[in-house]
Amino acid sequence: MVLKTQTVGLHFFNPRTPGTRHRIGVNYRYWKINGHSLNKSLRFHQIRRLGLDFRGHKVTRKRCSGTKQNFTWINFSWSPLYPYLCVVKEVSYDPYRTSFVALLVILNKNFKYGNFTYVLATNKSKAGEIVELTYKQTIVNVGDVTKLEYFPVGSEICCLELVPFGGAVFARAAGTLAILVSRSTEFTVVRLPSKETRIISNSCRAMRGRISNFNHKFCRLGKAGLNILKHKKPTVRGTAMNAVDHPHGGGTGKAGIGRTAPLTPWGKLAMGVKTTRFKKKLYLQTTFET
User: Fold this and answer.
1) Backbone angles phi, psi at 23, to 5 degrees
2) How far is residue 158's CA from residue 142's CA, in Å, rounded to a whole number?
3) Which is nearest to 143 in space by CA: 93, 189, 198, 86?
4) Does 157 have pLDDT greater than 70?
5) 1.10.760.10, 4.10.950.10, 3.90.1150.10, 3.40.50.300: which CATH number matches 240-290?
6) Quick one: fold of 4-218?
7) C-alpha of 82 from chain center
8) Are 170 and 191 contacting, i.e. CB atoms less than 8 angstroms apart?
9) What is the pLDDT of residue 155?
10) Which percentage of the chain shows pLDDT scores above 90?
11) Which of 63, 170, 215, 249 is deepest in the core (most CB within 10 A)?
12) Cα separation, 44 vs 71, whole angstroms
């Protein structure tokens, strides 16, 4: 159940059909999102054959082609814009992402329009906003990008790098953010959206604020047919299959799995077995004192 305080930016469809009775989507008019981008050079059509290899053989289960989409090139490393002063020209919709994207324009010394690039939009991004990408210690506003050593402790950040100048890898989904917990001379302790705490170098960059479309988790499709458009096929239980198709299959009626432990379709243990062989403990926090 969605509370009234959680309905900001959501659109509740009228129950005219069974598919729209429980459907909840994003209200793009509320966020003033442009559905058709003004810049076509950074968006191109990508031929997608999801679940199939170059021979046309199925290699991934529960994937399908879905609907046609235009891929938007997102600049996660903020190059060659870094360091520059930019202005947000528009905030638009991206079918490949749960969040919105912002089109940035470089402002040079003569204040003329220069290069264009797309970045992830924050919850306060709007057309005409000035965004600063800098190395220096300045007043960091929402949407600005700088090094972690210049953010005050307790700041909300997103699009966080793991390796200096390696590109944003953390807190990129809709409504996600990371919290800057503490800082030392060389490293910063950051709490990720997964509640994991990591030690990251002060030279890594991040964006101030929270990713846009924070109420995306309350959206409902309303019917299973929309999952097909999102390149997702239905998931069938193993017990509903034949014995030749799954280790849990076969039997009469609602029979059990017939095994001591659940198995994958390929006969391997599905629960209680560690699958990670190696973890980089360099960035994981064990004991850290500032």
Assistant:
1) -80, 135
2) 10
3) 86
4) yes
5) 4.10.950.10
6) SH3 type barrels. (2.30.30)
7) 22
8) no
9) 92
10) 46
11) 170
12) 5
**pTM reported for the whole predicted model:** 0.82
Rg (C-alpha) for the chain, rounded Å, is 23
Please name the amino acid found at residue 133: L
- CB-based burial, 249-276: b 16+ in 10 Å, e otherwise: beeeeeeebeeeeebeeeeeebeeeeee
Residue ranges of the chain that CATH labels 4.10.950.10: 240-290
**Portion of the chain with pLDDT greater than 70, in percent:** 87
- Which pairing describes strands 145-147 and 205-208: parallel, antiparallel, or unpaired? antiparallel
* Residues facing 87 on adjacent strands: 105, 130
Contacts of 165 (CB under 8 A, 6+ apart): 77, 203, 205
By residue count, the chain amounts to 290
CA angle 71, 74, 77 (to 5 degrees): 155
Give the Å distances, CA to CA, from 282 to 113, 168, 272, 278. 43, 18, 26, 12
Q: Where does CATH 2.30.30.30 sit in the chain?
A: 4-218
On the question of pLDDT at 288 being above 60, the answer is no
3-state helix, strand, coil in the chain (%, to 5): 5, 30, 65
Judge whether 50 and 58 are in contact, CB under 8 Å.
no
